């Protein structure tokens, strides 16, 4: 069965306020439970704040380390789920149920199956 990454993006400025955080967390917990009970979930985690990120690049043989995420953007990668579902339509259906879908976005990307290329 194919695997898909559901990459969770959002602008922290658009996130629910402190008075809504408990309800939002309950929604995330239920979503995760639903994924687990469906047998589709393989992994998933929230990421720490974007300002804790460190970016590493090597250019002309020199390693350059900078604080912060790679891209300058308002939307940040907040976490992910790795799911195992029959097809893209099923992955898109799970993405549409994501708790942040009304104020953020979810990138759905197939995981490359290197074993499929082993015979070529």
Describe the structure using short key phrases.
flat, four-stranded antiparallel sheet, 6 strands, two-stranded antiparallel sheet
Query: β content, as a range?
Result: 35-45%
Find the count of extended strands (DSSP E, 2+ residues): 6
* Number of self-contained structural domains: 1
- CATH topology descriptor: Alpha-Beta Plaits
Just name the CATH architecture.
Answer: 2-Layer Sandwich
Query: What's the helical proportion of residues?
Result: 25-40%
Radius of gyration: 17 Å
What is the CATH C-level name?
A: Alpha Beta
Average pLDDT, to the nearest integer? 90
Spatial arrangement of strands, main beta sheet: 2-5-1-6
Count of helical regions: 3
Tell me the span between the first and last alpha carbons: 20 Å
What's the main sheet like? Answer: 4 strands, antiparallel
Kindly describe this structure.
There is one protein chain. The mean pLDDT is 90. The protein has a single domain, classed as Alpha-Beta Plaits (2-Layer Sandwich). A hairpin with a 2-residue loop joins strand 3 and strand 4 (62-67). It has a 4-stranded antiparallel β-sheet, with helices on one face. Strands 3-4 form a two-stranded antiparallel ribbon. It is α+β, with helices and mostly antiparallel strands. It has helices spanning 21-38, 88-96, 114-117, and strands at residues 3-10, 41-46, 54-59, 62-67, 76-84, 104-110.
């Amino acid at each position: 069965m194919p695997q898909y990454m559901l990459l969770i993006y959002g602008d922290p400025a658009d996130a629910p306020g402190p008075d809504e955080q408990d309800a939002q967390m309950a929604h995330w917990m239920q979503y995760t439970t639903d994924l687990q009970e469906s047998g589709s979930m393989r992994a998933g985690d929230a990421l720490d704040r974007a300002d804790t990120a460190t970016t590493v690049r090597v250019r002309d043989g020199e390693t350059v380390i900078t604080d912060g995420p790679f891209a300058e953007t308002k939307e940040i990668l907040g976490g992910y789920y790795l799911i195992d579902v029959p097809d893209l339509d099923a992955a898109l259906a799970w993405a549409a149920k994501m708790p942040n879908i009304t104020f953020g976005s979810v990138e759905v990307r197939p995981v490359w199956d290197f074993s499929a290329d082993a015979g070529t």
